[in-house]
Automatic annotation (TrEMBL):
Residues 127-413 form the Peptidase S8/S53 domain. It comes from Nonomuraea glycinis. SUPFAM superfamilies: Subtilisin-like. Keywords: Hydrolase, Protease, Serine protease, Signal. InterPro entries: Peptidase_S8/S53_dom, Peptidase_S8/S53_dom_sf, Peptidase_S8_Asp-AS, Peptidase_S8_His-AS, Peptidase_S8_Ser-AS, Peptidase_S8_subtilisin-like, Peptidase_S8_subtilisin-rel. Residues 1-18 form the signal peptide. This is Peptidase S8/S53 domain-containing protein.
Length: 615
């Protein structure tokens, strides 16, 4: 009944009545087409239908319709759709569903100690025998952190001449797909914008999941014995979509259709490479408070799950305390939120009942392009901790199913309770020392020696039946979902920071402020251990206190100082007065605050920070 009603409501320019077997049409796509726009769409076919035949039908329906891709995909084509084309396709029994081909913008040493993987590695649990697939922005192939670990590579990237996109393929061969050695290289010309490599994210994620200590590496990743299967799913965009994403052009984004092809590729090679988990630090769109089953990628995730492969996805960095974004909202996925070094949910992390697990995601040091290392923050960084953990568990428990491995992380993790909407939710932060046996007694199940590259392009497998919800929305969102320090040059006073925390009154976005608060709380011994400033409302109360006690005054200036640090105004080594650095001033103030300093000492520290750090 839902499909009949919704499809009838979405009729555009066709007198035909909706039938039971008519395809489901996404409401947002239909609305845009109704307004006279051309929309890039994924046209999913019923099982066994011929891609080329449906492509011809689509192109014959309108001179404005262009089939962008019909090769190398499992059960779908990508095409621009206008009114006549949609009217034709929406009653075509060969078509199962039509929805927008959206884009997403590509989210250690301390974190591995926190979850216990460092000790687990020393005990022999390294993830040996398994492979972790990283669907992201490619990888720095010659980075010492990945030496001898890349077992195969692939790239799925789209071009689109539409002025809105102006998308260019980033695969090294210049084609929309590439499989084999070098396919996922993140150090290609298309990844470089104004001399800066914008495809750094995949290397950072891969390093967290499975980096192996070498050279200047801070430590091992979670599973230093596991193989790595990097898959590039990004496109270089030069159109107005970058501005819509609040990014300068050119920007690196990812089409849903390329993510779909990548998941299908993993399904084809997963047995030979013994893939235990897929990491997708990708996400965006509106907040989901219930599972978004029926969304794109669900069918692929379900098939992989039935084959024992977990798809681990970051929950997003919008600071929602009761909701997550897609595709993490798909119930078959493993949705991961971020905590800090104090085991508090990161202020930026989406969370709530739909979260499956927490993992560290603040100030994570891992690989970057150019054979370097750097710190990033985000649920993007939390997800690969879980993907790596699953490789360790597969080594320890070779006979457990993928679902059972995920459940073991859920049942053995540390309980993190937090407010979510009008209730309290408890989510487990992974704890590998609790999840693993003390000494390796099992050997990985024999899987053969992985080939350096997969065999020839795999034969597509029919797509299982999927019920697509017509009212689903898939708005373009940033990938990777990371947060960083700002680049400001002028400090703000506590009063000015309070204005920023007041919704719609400041100049900084809520997402940026939540990022700053997470970084501040992760580095501070006062926040949140003594004073919680993990939300905009709580931070506002700290920055504009009703109380005039010495503790309240110091907390106000101390939080402002931390925020000026996260805003990029000061570094820890910045000399704010004479030879006194910001780090030294904050350190002294926090020691006085945490060791019951006298009222005079607290007021003196507050005054010092006010005068030299916050104005």
């Amino acid at each position: 009944m839902l499909v009949i009603t919704a499809t009838a409501m979405l009729a555009v320019g066709s007198p035909a009545q909706a039938a039971l077997d008519d395809p489901a049409v996404a409401k947002d796509l239909a609305a845009e087409v109704r307004q006279g726009e051309k929309v890039r769409a994924i046209i999913e076919l019923e099982r066994g239908q011929n891609l080329a035949d449906v492509a011809k039908t689509a192109e014959a329906a309108s001179s404005k319709t262009k089939v962008i891709s019909k090769a190398g995909s499992d059960g779908f084509i990508v095409a621009t759709v206008d009114k006549p084309t949609l009217a034709e396709l929406r009653t075509d029994s060969r078509v199962k569903a039509i929805y927008k081909d959206e884009v997403s913008k590509p989210t250690l040493d301390v974190s591995t100690r926190l979850i216990g993987s460092d000790r687990a590695n020393r005990m022999g649990w390294t993830g040996q025998g398994s492979t972790i697939a990283i669907l992201d922005t490619g990888i720095d192939r010659d980075h010492p952190f990945f030496a001898g670990r890349i077992v195969a590579e692939a790239c799925f990237s789209s071009s689109d001449p539409d002025p809105y996109y102006l998308g260019e393929v980033v695969c090294p061969n210049g084609q929309p797909s590439q499989i084999g050695a070098g396919a996922a290289d993140a150090e290609t010309a298309k990844c470089v914008v104004n001399g800066v490599n914008k495809c750094y994210h995949g290397s950072h994620v891969a390093g967290i999941a499975a980096g192996k200590k070498a050279g200047t590496a801070p430590s091992n990743g979670v599973a230093p014995g596991a193989g790595i299967l990097p898959i590039q799913v990004s496109t270089r965009f030069n159109g107005t979509i970058c501005e819509q994403q609040e990014l300068p052009a050119p920007c690196i984004l990812s089409f849903t259709s390329d993510q779909m092809r990548a998941l299908q590729h993993v399904e084809e090679v997963r047995a030979g490479l013994n893939v235990v988990a897929i990491n997708m630090s990708i996400g965006g769109g509106p907040r989901y408070q219930v599972h978004c089953d029926g969304a794109p990628l669900e069918a692929e995730i379900l098939r992989l799950k039935s084959a024992g492969v977990a798809t681990v996805i970051s929950s997003g960095n919008d600071g929602h305390d009761n909701g997550i974004v897609r595709p993490a909202c798909i119930s078959a996925a493993v949705a991961v939120g971020a905590t800090d070094d104090h085991d508090a949910p990161a202020a930026f992390s989406n969370r709530g009942p739909l979260i499956d697990l927490f993992a560290p995601g603040v100030a994570i040091n891992s690989a970057l392009t150019g054979n370097t290392f750097g710190v990033l923050n985000g649920t993007s960084m939390a997800a690969p901790h879980v993907a790596g953990a699953l490789a360790l568990l597969r080594q320890a428990y070779p006979d457990l199913t993928g679902d059972q491995l995920v459940e073991k992380l859920r049942t053995t993790g540390k309980s993190i309770a937090y407010a979510s909407g009008d209730t309290t939710v408890t989510t487990k932060r992974i704890d590998l020392l609790a999840a693993l046996p003390p000494v390796p007694t099992a050997s990985p199940r024999p899987t053969g020696t992985p080939a350096t590259t997969p065999a020839a392009t795999p034969t597509p497998t029919p797509t299982p039946t999927r019920t697509h919800r017509p009212d689903e929305r898939f708005d373009p969102q940033p990938v990777p979902d990371t947060c960083k320090r700002g680049k400001a040059t002028k400090p703000l006073t506590a009063k000015q920071w309070a204005t920023e925390m007041h919704r719609k009154k400041g100049s900084l976005s809520d997402k940026t402020l939540l990022c700053y608060l997470s970084l501040a709380q992760n580095g501070s011994k006062v926040f949140p251990e003594l004073t919680n400033a993990g939300s905009l409302g709580k931070a506002y109360k700290v920055l504009a206190p009703k109380s005039k006690t010495a503790k309240a005054l110091l907390d106000r200036e101390l939080l402002a100082a931390w925020l000026n640090y996260t805003h990029g105004v000061h570094n820890g080594s910045t000399k704010i007065h004479g030879s006194i650095t910001l780090a030294k001033a904050i350190g002294l103030a926090e020691r006085r605050r945490t060791t019951n300093g006298t009222s005079a000492q607290l007021r003196k520290s507050a005054g010092y920070l006010y005068k030299h750090a916050n104005k």
